[in-house]
């Protein structure tokens, strides 16, 4: 069992205070302008990453060459309580590599298509029992690819019928204000209309954490998250 | 005096007592030893059973864990479970989807329960609460009940104590590539069925305790209760409900203990019964063999002894000591006893012959003295003896009678030894007084012979040789057949020799004249048969010497 610690080098309880200097307002004072929200996501408890507990011990799986994705990539930061917006469809691919979905967490807009190319030398299957999108792409071999269009907002859990340990999450939003942090945990939400807003960071295992953020006209706001929220 | 017991009784008694003592010692040793052996064997058997059980159980658990790990890799189950919890925590689940996902999990769980044949199978949520349960005992694992599972293991085995009872659980964590979404747990109720199953496996009684209370048991209730109060410090053996048991702990997990136990007393009873049966058979055989053996031994001793004593009794009855006792050839000791007896008899016979010879010598001396007193009667006794034997043989007397006749004739006038020389040598006729004195000599002779026991058969000859068939003889005046044959013969021979011998007062007469004289008085004075016989044997008297008489007289034969 491989245990990988995702731990801030300066200590788990240390908040990373993003030193964001708000630029002096250059916008006309009368008009409320949207503003970006930046921030950083920290994961404050050790994450245990399991190797697949294979029911087929005879089969050998090559150890992934790439370093495992930073756990921060499995977080989705988004704006809560918004009215549906017109959004542009996106195109995203979730690869099936080394018996796992890569990336494991994606966030897309309503109407987007997600492609599931099979890069493994074995068959895979993609299916979901989720309300937002219930589908089964069947089994297909290496090099083949199938795609799914997500028309309803919500969380969609994706599994492989052949390999029970494989799972991925597709978050479908009917607005554009969401982001997946980079490996360093930094994220930036597109400009949000000014006002008091609630921003949520969601992790598939650690649950979600919501912060209230005051977005001032034209002034980038900051929202830093530590998951899970330390007990007060 | 008490009669001593028979030899066979003694050998039988000794043999039987010996066998009985040996068997008793064997019995006691067997009883003491059997118990020790049974105890060791039961403890050993139970220990082997424990090892076998442990090995089987380890393998079974490994297989069960592998099976559970395999069935836990159920994509539908995992997908439904993960979708259920992810979505319910994200936005909440609408009722119909909640039901659909839960049904999916339930259907899968029921399939797996049927597949594993488990008492109860449950799918736990990530917090360890029962999400869905299936199987025959699913009622005992109601939803939301917590089942504590060991942390940090992908598969696990443990004891779970629920209000509804204790269970042995095996399970596998349901995991996706990066996290655990719950667990699949298979439970086996620690109840009577399980105890019976284990009991069959271990071939001994099983007691299952949970938190120090009996949960299930195949042993009697008091035994199980005693085992609980004895606690886990019960060693290899423990006294439970008054009986000794061998005890091993098969499983020691959390609050649960599974003991296996076997009654040493029960096993000892069985072993003792078997041993007793065998011993009884051996005892029977031993007694029969010992009885036969001692009978045979006694017979080899008593039979020849009986035979010998029979022979001796016969010899004693017949007064015949000449034939030696035959050797039995059955044992050296008996043969040397018989030889000693023969030597003794020989010695006695020789001594008796010496005594007889001594007596004969003395009597012969008497006879010779008598003959020497009167020159006219010299050789008279010898001639009468020889003639009498000739007559007796002709009259077909037996050898023994002839022997008596020979010596009796030789001594017939021994009574005359008491007569005075005047009467004995008187040349003329005797006066009546002198004749009365002469007539006393047969009685005198009988009195003399009575002094010697072995001369008793000869007394009638001496005493009655002057009786006459017509009853006019002396000393008793017997008639005819009242007079013994031997006495009649000697009377005839005496008269014949007297007639044919010279006397001081007359010359000797011829034999023909003597025969005529005898014939004239045959029937009145002489026995006619004897006279007739004399007449027949007379020619022999001069030609045939009598060896027996010569021997009797101690003369050397030519």
Mean model confidence by pLDDT of chain A: 78
Approximate shape of chain A? elongated
Low-confidence stretches of chain B: none
Q: Which class do the helix and strand fractions of chain B yield?
A: alpha+beta
Structural classification of chain A: mainly beta
The number of helices of chain B is 17
Strand order in the largest sheet of chain B: 2-1-5-4-3
Indicate the CATH architecture of the largest domain in chain A.
Sandwich
Describe the structure.
The complex is a heterodimer of chains A (232) and B (558). In chain A, 0% of the residues lie in helices and 43% in strands. Chain A is an all-beta fold and 232 residues long. In chain A, a hairpin with a 4-residue loop joins strand 10 and strand 11. Chain B is an alpha+beta fold and 558 residues long. Chain B has 17 helices and ten strands. In chain B, the strands form two sheets. In chain B, strands 2-1-5-4-3 form a five-stranded antiparallel sheet. In chain B, strands 7-6-10-9-8 form a five-stranded antiparallel sheet. In chain B, strand 8 and strand 9 form a beta hairpin. In chain B, helix 2 runs antiparallel to helix 3, helix 8 crosses helix 16 (528-543) and helix 14 packs across helix 15. The model of chain B has no long low-confidence stretch (mean pLDDT 85). Classes of the chains: A mainly beta (232), B alpha+beta (558).
How is the secondary structure organized here?
The complex is a heterodimer of chains A (232) and B (558).
Chain A (H helix, E strand, L loop, with lengths): L2 E2 L30 E9 L3 E2 L26 E5 L11 E3 L1 E3 L2 E3 L2 E5 L3 E5 L6 E6 L4 E7 L4 E5 L4 E6 L7 E7 L4 E2 L6 E7 L2 E9 L3 E9 L5 E2 L2 E3 L5
Chain B lengths: L6 H66 L2 H16 L4 H22 L3 E5 L5 E5 L20 E8 L2 E11 L4 E10 L2 H11 L2 E6 L2 E5 L3 H10 L6 E4 L2 E11 L2 E8 H55 L13 H42 L6 H15 L4 H12 L10 H5 L6 H7 L2 H9 L9 H6 L20 H16 L10 H10 L7 H16 L3 H6 L6
Antiparallel strand pairs in B: 1-2, 1-5, 3-4, 4-5, 6-7, 6-10, 8-9, 9-10
Helix pairs in contact in B: 1-6, 2-3, 8-9, 8-14, 8-16, 14-15
């Amino acid at each position: 069992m491989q245990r990988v610690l995702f731990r801030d080098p300066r200590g788990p309880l240390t908040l990373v205070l993003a030193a964001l200097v708000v630029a002096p307002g250059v916008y006309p004072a009368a008009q409320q302008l949207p503003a970006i929200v930046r921030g950083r996501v920290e994961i404050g408890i050790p994450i245990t990453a399991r190797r697949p507990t294979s029911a087929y011990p005879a089969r050998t799986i090559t150890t992934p060459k790439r370093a495992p994705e930073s756990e921060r990539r499995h977080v989705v930061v988004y704006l809560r309580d918004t009215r549906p917006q017109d959004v542009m469809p996106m195109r995203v691919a979730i690869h099936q590599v080394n018996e796992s979905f890569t990336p494991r967490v994606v966030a897309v807009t309503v109407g987007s298509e997600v492609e599931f190319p099979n890069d493994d030398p074995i068959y895979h299957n993609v299916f979901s029992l989720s309300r937002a999108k219930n589908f089964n792409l069947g089994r297909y071999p290496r090099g083949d690819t199938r795609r799914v269009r997500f028309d309803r907002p919500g969380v969609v859990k994706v599994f492989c019928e052949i390999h029970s340990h494989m799972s991925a999450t597709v978050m479908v939003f009917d607005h554009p204000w969401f982001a997946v942090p980079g490996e360093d945990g930094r994220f930036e939400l597109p400009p949000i209309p000014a006002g008091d807003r609630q921003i949520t960071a969601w992790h598939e295992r650690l649950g979600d954490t919501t912060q209230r953020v005051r977005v001032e006209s034209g002034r980038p706001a900051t929202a830093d998250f530590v998951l899970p929220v330390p007990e007060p | 005096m008490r009669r001593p017991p028979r030899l066979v009784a003694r050998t039988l008694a000794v043999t039987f007592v010996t066998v009985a003592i040996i068997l008793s010692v064997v019995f006691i040793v067997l009883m003491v030893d059997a118990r020790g052996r049974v105890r060791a064997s039961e403890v050993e058997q139970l220990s082997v059973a424990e090892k076998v059980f442990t090995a089987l159980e380890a393998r079974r658990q490994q297989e069960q864990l592998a099976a559970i790990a395999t069935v836990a890799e159920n994509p539908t189950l995992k997908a439904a479970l993960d979708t259920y919890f992810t979505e319910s925590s994200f936005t909440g689940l609408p009722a119909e989807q909640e039901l659909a996902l839960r049904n999916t999990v339930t259907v899968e769980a029921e399939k797996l329960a049927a597949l594993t044949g488990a008492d109860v199978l449950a799918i736990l949520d990530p917090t360890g609460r029962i999400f869905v349960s299936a199987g025959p005992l699913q009622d005992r694992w109601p939803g939301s009940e917590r089942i504590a599972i060991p942390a940090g293991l992908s598969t696990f085995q443990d004891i779970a104590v629920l209000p509804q009872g204790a269970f042995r659980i095996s399970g596998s964590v349901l995991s996706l590539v990066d996290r655990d979404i719950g667990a699949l747990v298979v439970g086996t109720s620690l109840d009577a069925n399980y105890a019976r199953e284990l009991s069959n496996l271990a071939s001994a009684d099983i007691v299952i305790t949970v938190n120090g209370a009996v949960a299930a048991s195949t042993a009697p209730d008091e035994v199980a209760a005693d085992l609980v109060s004895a606690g886990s410090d019960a060693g290899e053996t423990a006294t439970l409900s008054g009986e000794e048991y061998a005890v091993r702990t098969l499983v020691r997990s959390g609050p649960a203990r599974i003991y296996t136990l076997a009654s040493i007393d029960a096993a000892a009873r069985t072993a003792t019964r078997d041993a007793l049966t065998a011993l009884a058979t051996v005892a029977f055989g031993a007694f029969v063999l010992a009885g036969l053996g001692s009978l045979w031994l006694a017979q080899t001793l008593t039979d020849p002894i009986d035979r010998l004593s029979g022979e001796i009794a016969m010899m004693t009855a017949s007064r015949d000591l000449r034939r030696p006792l035959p050797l039995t050839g059955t044992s050296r000791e008996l043969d040397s006893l018989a030889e000693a007896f023969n030597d003794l008899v020989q010695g006695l016979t020789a001594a008796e012959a010496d005594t007889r010879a001594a007596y004969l010598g003395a009597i012969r001396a008497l006879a010779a003295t008598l003959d020497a007193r009167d020159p006219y009667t010299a050789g008279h006794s010898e001639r009468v003896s020889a003639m009498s034997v000739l007559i007796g043989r002709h009259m077909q007397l037996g050898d023994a009678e002839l022997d008596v006749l020979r010596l009796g004739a030789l001594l017939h006038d021994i009574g005359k030894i008491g007569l005075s020389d005047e009467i004995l040598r008187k040349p003329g006729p005797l006066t009546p007084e002198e004749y009365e004195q002469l007539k006393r000599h047969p009685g005198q002779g009988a009195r003399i012979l009575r002094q010697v026991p072995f001369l008793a058969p000869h007394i009638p000859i001496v005493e009655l040789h002057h009786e006459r068939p017509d009853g006019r003889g002396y000393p008793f005046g017997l008639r005819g057949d009242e007079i013994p044959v031997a006495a009649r013969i000697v009377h005839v021979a005496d008269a014949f020799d007297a007639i044919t011998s010279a006397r001081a007062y007359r010359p000797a007469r011829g034999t023909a004249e003597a025969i005529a004289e005898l014939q004239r008085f045959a029937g009145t004075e002489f026995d006619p048969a004897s006279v007739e016989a004399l007449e027949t044997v007379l020619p022999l008297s001069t030609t045939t010497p009598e060896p027996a008489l010569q021997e009797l007289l101690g003369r050397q034969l030519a």
